[in-house]
Amino acid sequence: MYWHLSCKLIKQIYEYDAQRNIINKQSVIITPEPATLLLLGAGLLGLGFLVRRKIRSLN
To answer: Which end of the chain is more exposed for a tag (fewer CB within 10 A), N or C?
Structure first.
């Protein structure tokens, strides 16, 4: 059985035996996928262009 504590950037994975004793403990560092970062960057770039266009239209 595995328990995942996903509220941190470092995830702790515990493995228990039948008597609920911890037999294995691992730390996993969560990293975002490249597609997620690309999508976030494209959205921020688009927002930057919209703000720039709005500022230029006011002048």
So the answer is: C
Annotate 5-27 with DSSP letters as a single string: -TTSSEEEEEEE-TT--EEEEEE
Q: Which letter, b or e, does each residue of 10-47 get, where b requires 16 or more Cβ atoms within 10 Å of its Cβ?
A: eeeeeeeeeeeeeeeeeeeeeeeeeeeeeeeeeeeeee
Taking the whole predicted model, whether its pTM rises above 0.85 is answered as: no
Sheet holding 2-4, edge to edge: 2-4, 10-16, 22-29
* 27, 10 Cβ separation under 8 angstroms: yes
CB 23 within 8 A of CB 15: yes
